[in-house]
Amino acid sequence: MLGTGLFKGLAVTFGQMTKKKITLQYPEERPDFGDRFRGIHEFIPELCIVCHQCARICPTSCISLSGTRGDDKKLRIDTYDINFEICILCDLCTEVCPTEAIRMTDQFELAAYSRDDLYKDMNWLYENHKQHGSYDQLQAAKRQAQRDQAAAVSANKGDES
Length: 161
Known about the structure:
three-stranded antiparallel sheet; alpha+beta; flat; 5 strands; Alpha-Beta Plaits; 39% helix; 5 helices; 15% strand; two-stranded antiparallel ribbon
């Protein structure tokens, strides 16, 4: 009776030894998450219109923001803070944002020794955007839009003459 259980266990163990290993040597090898992975936020202050939609929809009320009106009567973001201690990374804030000023990245490392380190401000979120988010893609899109606009202007000048 004891021998059959032992042999079954050894059979499982030896069967696993011949299979391909799936262990990653973290942090040298990073896991490949899917496109829909919800990680730490990135924030683009230039796009924010201070509509407070993200703060209103947040189920944990971890987002706080404030803004002031400029000389051109448009709202400008002053502060944008997220408390990652209670954030559940639900992605609702990014879904409701009309200008896509807040987005999710594929970063997940947010370990800290102090709870105070889990309060992130607008500057930290923007640096996260530049380092891990879509900063390079947005800059390339801006350059392409400028080139297209310049080409359209030169084409219009050629049509007029």
